[in-house]
Amino acid sequence: MAPEREYYRWTVCAVIVLLIALCAAHMTDRPASSHPHRKTSVLKMDEASLSVINEIEDDMMLYVLSDHCFQCLPQLLGIIPARPASGTPTMVGFVVDTQHALTLQLNSTSAHSEQCKVHFHFGEQGNYSLWVKNLNEPSRVNCSMIIDSDPINSYLPILFAFLVFAFLAALSAIWNTVKRLDVVTNLLLCLGSTVETERLINSELGTPNRLIDASTESIIPATAGRRLRSLDTFRGYGALSLIVLEMINYGGGGYWFFRHESWNGLTLCNFLLRRFVFIMGTSVGLSLSGSLRRGVKRTHLLWRIFWRSFQLFLIGVIIINPNYCSGPLSWDSFRIPGVLQRLGFTYLVVAVLDLVVSRDRLNNILSSETWYSVHDVCLYWPAWVFVIALETIWLCLTFLLPVPACPTGYLGPGGIGDFGQYQNCTGGASGYIDRWLLRDNHIYQTPSSRVVYQTMMPFDPEGVLGTINSILMAFLGLQAGKILLHYRDQHRQIITRFLIWGFILGIISAALTKCSRNDGFIPVNKNLWSLSYVTTLSCFAFVALVFFYYSVDVKKWWSGAPFFYPGMNSILVYVGHEVFEEYFPFRWKMANSQSHAEHLAQNLVATSVWVIIAYLLYRKKIFWKI
């Protein structure tokens, strides 16, 4: 039967990934260095061993500065004593970070001056020696880096996992092609039950009896009696973001680029995840339009919008304040903002806005009309005015609101950033508003900026001010839905408009950021949900939707599986992966907790299990809606 076949396929996929990743972990293990001067130590992920060998007659101070830390002060790593009178050099061992390139600076304790500087990118679990010596001139210090033992290749597990999934995808594509052959079809009919086999073949080959949702709310009537499959496309795209979200939340194999960016810039994590807000806006437009076409009363839809928003907010508050293992909940540290809370409020604003301006029936605008090319925007001009007014409020608060002891318009991380001048100014106006409105103990206490910039102030990346820009991103997604509604079945028009929107948003992003990570007017920043962050991600979302729309709706090359299935139960999958994160089979005790391979295997297996669960729920027609 089809469910069992799919179940076994994804189970085998998860097991193969686990086995190969464990093999990769074994391959990357190696004995500790046998360097004669080195004291053996157990290195963790993203760490390397550095021995500084001092051959001069002066104490040296070792400072370190990460390339990833913008305008930061070098941090003292330790002191290396002077060479004793006997002439034997002194050696001090350190552990250094390998995620980003570092600048090592040696200063003399007597002269308080820089003696030498070395820029180097250390490899994970490598062993290195930094020799400090005088050459021909006693006053001239030379520093040279020596690799005592090579680092491991920590990216092999990713390569193995990619090859495995690519191989399984290729096998699936080959099987789907082969079973279309008449010979194979007849063979299947002979081998199995006629009724069941025909159901299997039909369900796999082009007449999928797929439910769009637990309700028919999001079905959009299409011409020629054909249901528009675009919502399937976008739900699959959003589900891809959801699957990546699970992978990231489970640890992302311990790789830094699968984590949130410390401050400005984008990692793969930030690049993929927040487009889920964009897709939510698209779904809102298609869903409400279908409901209005079927004659559902606006008052009923309004009540449903409020109820769903409240449920999202309530679920979000519950899952970010877990106390099933740590005892009774402390109201003093009760966190209020969160991902689902922001999604709930964003959904509320965008859905109500669309409900107010949407029409019960779409007017057929003739292509000869002068404003035909922009009627999907002009028809909803009040909504655009409202969103632009919201964005004006964000700009004014961000750049004009006075923040005590901080420069007006500050967008930095505080801490050791900006040369340590604004240590308690993390997030500028955004952080100040959250701390004033919600109080310090009710927002996120360990922001990602703490790792690199050593910030001490609490800062919530899902705070109040950033929600304005999440509304903007959802509204841009809503615009994608309007394009589908007004140019239904006009594939060229839809693709062209997606590309135009992507181009416009890309130009805006380039102007705001000056095509740089830190030097723009408004840098790309996930923590702040900056305007450039929204325009950049929305730009790539529109371009990516061109691919999804063309491959799924136009050419029908791909059904959206397996990403489609988690999208059918997105809330259940999101809440489930948060609640059961610490339970088997989503987590187990690893033989080597400092192995990227084992972390990656565990995280991939956990994510694959949720895909299997989502698929089985889909086959059983079980959908959890709020």
Automatic annotation (TrEMBL):
<feature type="transmembrane region" description="Helical">
    <location>
        <begin position="600"/>
        <end position="618"/>
    </location>
</feature>
<keyword id="KW-1133">Transmembrane helix</keyword>
<feature type="transmembrane region" description="Helical">
    <location>
        <begin position="155"/>
        <end position="175"/>
    </location>
</feature>
<feature type="transmembrane region" description="Helical">
    <location>
        <begin position="494"/>
        <end position="512"/>
    </location>
</feature>
<feature type="transmembrane region" description="Helical">
    <location>
        <begin position="7"/>
        <end position="27"/>
    </location>
</feature>
<feature type="transmembrane region" description="Helical">
    <location>
        <begin position="301"/>
        <end position="320"/>
    </location>
</feature>
<keyword id="KW-0812">Transmembrane</keyword>
<feature type="transmembrane region" description="Helical">
    <location>
        <begin position="563"/>
        <end position="580"/>
    </location>
</feature>
<feature type="transmembrane region" description="Helical">
    <location>
        <begin position="464"/>
        <end position="485"/>
    </location>
</feature>
<feature type="transmembrane region" description="Helical">
    <location>
        <begin position="270"/>
        <end position="289"/>
    </location>
</feature>
<keyword id="KW-0472">Membrane</keyword>
<feature type="transmembrane region" description="Helical">
    <location>
        <begin position="378"/>
        <end position="401"/>
    </location>
</feature>
<feature type="transmembrane region" description="Helical">
    <location>
        <begin position="236"/>
        <end position="258"/>
    </location>
</feature>
<protein>
    <submittedName>
        <fullName>Heparan-alpha-glucosaminide N-acetyltransferase-like</fullName>
    </submittedName>
</protein>
<feature type="transmembrane region" description="Helical">
    <location>
        <begin position="340"/>
        <end position="357"/>
    </location>
</feature>
<feature type="transmembrane region" description="Helical">
    <location>
        <begin position="532"/>
        <end position="551"/>
    </location>
</feature>
